[in-house]
């Protein structure tokens, strides 16, 4: 039996988190948001969110008859979302596709994949596939000239399914030199504490050699130096 998920009217769901009311509730309705689903890992007043961060909150909603993820600023930290949305748009397909955005919301593709922390305990061949997708995504972002800015802590910002998706462009920049690949390799494989240390052990990685490869890549980010990183990470078939 398939149970239909209840979709709450915009007036009922706490889209103005953590306050009761906000101006953008009306804007969301005007943009075609029909209702909001209570689903996700974070809870507030008996409603569930996909995410509650220090700048924004994300929830699943129905828009133009499809399920979408919507990010809005927290009402105790109102910020203009347009820069984040523009960079996220450039980052597609590494980022979720942006359908519509304004100063106060990003309506985007809902990505139903598990986050990377749920996939690192998989057996070696599957783990390698996961890591390869993630490194390829980070390399693609580097080549696009986008620096994500928070990938040394990849756990909440990388979802992996058919493709690896990197979320949250709130700290991203087009001015900084991109360091997505070096950050993500450091976060996933180089840190001395678990889970990175555990992954590196499982993969049988020689950290000194990987560091040398990363230095080469950092000096001259290219397909060729990326291949050396992949080789030293034991991810080249
Ligand atoms: N498009 C999406 N599809 C599925 N889940 C998403 C999507 N966007 C965000 N999420 C979920 O919501 C969480 C929070 O997203 P995000 O990091 O963009 O916002 P935030 O943490 O609330 O805000 P910020 O970090 O900017 O303060 C993510 O870790 C992820 O689990
Ligand atoms: Mg975040």
Structure description:
It contains 7 helices and 11 strands. By secondary structure, it is α+β, with helices and mostly antiparallel strands. It has 2 domains: 103 residues, 2-Layer Sandwich (Phosphorylase Kinase, domain 1), CATH 3.30.200; 117 residues, Orthogonal Bundle (Transferase(Phosphotransferase), domain 1), CATH 1.10.510. The mean pLDDT is 96. This is Protein kinase domain-containing protein. GO terms for molecular function: ATP binding; protein kinase activity. It comes from Ignicoccus pacificus DSM 13166.
Keywords, separated by commas or semicolons:
237 residues, Phosphorylase Kinase, domain 1, Transferase(Phosphotransferase), domain 1, 2 domains, seven-stranded antiparallel sheet, two-stranded antiparallel ribbon, 34% helix, binds adenosine-5'-triphosphate, binds magnesium ion
Spell out the blueprint of helices and strands:
Layout: E1 7-8, H1 24-30, E2 33-37, E3 42-44, E4 47-49, E5 51-52, E6 56-63, E7 66-73, H2 82-91, E8 98-102, E9 105-109, H3 124-144, E10 158-160, E11 164-166, H4 180-190, H5 196-203, H6 207-219, H7 223-232
Helix pairs in contact: 3-4, 4-5, 6-7
This protein binds adenosine-5'-triphosphate and magnesium ion (MG).
């Amino acid at each position: 039996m398939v149970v239909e998920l209840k979709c709450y009217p915009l007036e009922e769901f706490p889209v103005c988190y953590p306050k009761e009311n906000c101006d953008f509730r009306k804007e969301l309705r005007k943009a075609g948001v029909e209702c909001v689903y209570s689903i996700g890992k974070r809870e507030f007043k008996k409603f569930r969110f996909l995410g509650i961060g220090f700048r924004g909150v994300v929830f699943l909603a129905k828009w133009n008859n499809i399920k979408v993820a919507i990010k809005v600023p927290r009402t105790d930290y109102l910020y203009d979302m347009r820069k984040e949305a523009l960079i996220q748009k450039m980052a597609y397909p590494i980022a979720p596709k942006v359908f519509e955005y304004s100063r106060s919301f990003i309506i985007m593709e809902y990505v139903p994949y598990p986050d990377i922390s749920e996939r690192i305990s998989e057996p070696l061949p599957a783990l390698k596939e996961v890591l390869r997708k993630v490194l390829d995504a980070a390399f693609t972002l580097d080549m696009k000239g986008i620096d994500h800015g928070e990938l040394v802590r990849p756990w909440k910002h990388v979802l992996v399914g058919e493709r690896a998706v990197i979320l949250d462009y709130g700290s991203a920049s087009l001015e900084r030199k991109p360091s997505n690949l070096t950050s993500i390799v450091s976060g996933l494989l180089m840190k001395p504490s678990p889970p990175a240390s555990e992954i590196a052990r499982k993969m049988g990685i020689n950290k000194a050699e990987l560091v040398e490869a990363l230095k080469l890549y950092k000096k001259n980010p290219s397909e060729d130096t990326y291949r050396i990183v992949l080789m030293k990470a034991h991810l080249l078939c």
